[in-house]
Amino acid sequence: MTSVFSATDLCVSISGKPILRNVSFDLEQGKILGLVGESGSGKSMSALSAMQLLPEGAHQIGDLMFEGKNLTRATDTEMTHVRGKDISMVFQEPLTALNPTRTIGEQVAEGLRWHQGLTRKEAMDQTIDVLERVGLGLGLEYGLIDRFPHQLSGGQRQRVVIAIAIACKPKVLIADEPTTALDVTVQAQILTLLKDIVRKEQMAMLLISHDLAVVADMADTVAIMKDGVIVERGPTCELFDNLSHPYSKKLFETSNHVPVPRQEPVDKITQPLLKVSNVLREYPLPRASIFTRRQWHRAVQHVSFHVAPRQSMGLVGESGCGKSTLARTILGLTPPNAGHIQFLGKDPYSVSRKDRQDLQLGIQAVFQDPYGSFDPRHTVERTVGEPLHLMRNELSRSQRKKRVHEVLESVGLSSADANKYPHEFSGGQRQRIAIARALVTNPSLIVADEPVSALDVSIRAQILDLFADLRDRLGMAYLFISHDLSAVQAITDRVIVMNAGRIVEEGPTGEVFSNPKHPYTRILVSAAPDLNEALRKRREEENKHTH
After folding, report:
1. pLDDT, mean over the chain
2. What is the pTM of this model?
3. By the number of CB atoms within 10 A of the CB, which of 276, 379, 479, 490 ranks highest?
4. Domains (ranges, CATH) in the chain?
């Protein structure tokens, strides 16, 4: 098979610190190479090297060959003609990869106009085709092409980034964690889409992921990376059947990790801690013209459920189904258009300001992207202690400091970390800081919105263990919002399944996942990636081809 792109003895250092050491790999036409490893192992730096987008202060040696040309010697002008047209990249964080001031349509069309010299109309026609290919066809009817990135859900933004990457039909596609922020059904669709594009267009693809199940399903060959070195590589099934490096074995074990189950799940509700009754939340859609009536999008449609003290409630559903909107309404950030919320017997939207502050002490949030929810100029001590302003008359400065140090230690960090800044921590450590901030007021309910979606397998296992430990040790309740069904299964007593703003199924977690009644729940469960199942299917395929 023809090698389209190859890296040989690639070494990268930043300010003298080695990041990549003698990394070599080949990308073959119509084949997918999976690059696996934890945060900080050098996966993304390998991708940035291939695109010649290394940060300032980086020093690179080694060869990057594409169609007989060494890209390490290419000028910036030459690389602008290669990027997007011949080699494209799907970045991990779509919100930072997209331009907030330009519409989705303009951003997809930009590459087509630049590389193919199309007119505005021709580029827009192709943009519609590309957006339909990545599953955004329905959204086009609602004016999605004229929306800005912040007006889309996480899954929709990721599809737009993929649309930009594949618009010019590149020969090499580098996908850096392309499905991290996606729910299981969208992830399954996007992975199938990427696989089809690779086969049909005979593209070469480098798939970077920390999810072994995704890599086992997608990649023809796999390379495992640790501390900037590829420690093991080989054809997918052969590699997973004969893992020899201790690090590879540890990754395999932690990917199947489940926290110690609770002895007695809280399923019966006597006195609810949180009561959501018939909540409706809708948003105005942009008008087609000043003469048309304004249309409204119903994000949450007459939703009702209860959470008991100490209960762990899961909330699952696709991107855009209303999970995060419902979370914001529960947290007191956006009032419902109809219906009621009661927390500790009180409606946060109808009480006095003082009573509302008291209620806010008892309910805290852990957000999906901890880095985005921290002020980079504030120390960890100030960030974690921020919710304590609600108790400023009750706690002295020294008591606040002591409380911050206690919660940092309770989530597995040290008091010395209090004086550092968010950028000095890894992704997993930042998520621990986010959990510490939620714990600092001793809440009775934590709303965790996708708290493990961006974490690699070993850190995800640690954070799930931490959630289980805090739940059992401190007796707090969770509303655990996630598209990661295995995480929900591991940590919750009951689960609610949402689709298009409505609850379609609710019940004990084990029961709902083992015997789903609603067709939508069945789709969700069947789409969830499973490492052992992916390897079994791949072995069956290989056996068919050999016989």
Report:
1. 86
2. 0.77
3. 479
4. 3-255 (3.40.50.300), 274-528 (3.40.50.300)
